[in-house]
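Question: does this match?
>
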Amino acid sequence: MSKNVLTIRNLSVNYQTDQGTLQAMRNVNIDVPKGSIVGVVGESGCGKSTLISTIIRLLATNADIPNGEVDFEGRDILTLSEDEMRKLRGDRLSIVFQDPMSSLNPVLTIGKQMTDIQYRDKKTMAQKRQRSINMLESVGIPDPASRLNQYPHEFSGGMRQRIAIAMALQAEPSLLIADEPTTALDATLEVQIIHLLKQLQSTIGCSVLFISHHLGVIAELCDYVVVIYAGEVVEEGTVSDVFKRPQHPYTEKLLECDPANIAQKTRELPTIPGNVPDLVSLPSGCIFKDRCHTKIDRCDNERPQRIDAADKHYVSCHLRSPQ
């Protein structure tokens, strides 16, 4: 039996555009061990949303997958029929989207939505309703029985996100994908949602793939972190290793840009100089070379290979590879 609930190998995803083929992801490798929380971090446009869409098989019509495998519980998702995928979504594989204000149906009550998604279960409506009440209670919704009859607009943003989490975990999936679920929330609610996710994940025993651009959230919640830049995984490892001993220049710069690491008051937040490369016309050599402060000659023409920086800590950088 595999120790991973999700194993992604050599995954590439392209989009056909008017300008040409946009290579959104290239030869990505990610492991999500059973019972763990794996964070995926990177700038906007790095490929996080494409990764999610590929896993749940809801890519745009102009997308294609030239190579790769997405092994979920021993089956390659990319080879499954649409009917087989429907059986996985919402059951063994669930997702919480980033915007709690639009992820719930505004014209249906919370109870109707929570019981409808249990259509696979051969239970009575009373049993499904009680299960929904129990899940709402577990995510901290007060008076859950009466609130089943309310509509989404009668809840705050934080409450709606709690409801979305309850719905995603109702079927006790083996993998929960959390797509920046705290982005639209204020700092206080963000902390509450993080602690809630960690508690529920421990109780249910599922694995979590947590997508975020917020390094503080990743540090607080996750066991492992995967750093993506312009469609490539540049570093991965335990949160402790990557945050305390970053090996890739991009990871170092990301950490420097985290407001929590700013020691003195300033009117300007730090940024990474330069621009993300054109994914339609990819440069030769290292994908990060034009923004890198430690670039060497090899970076111009030679692609860095994934190497072991330490136990379960991997990086793709010429500075860490044998000369």
User: Anything to note?
Assistant: The chain has a mean pLDDT of 91. The CA atoms of residues 8 and 30 lie 5 Å apart. Residues 106-170 form one domain. The chain has two domains: 4-92+172-263, 106-170.
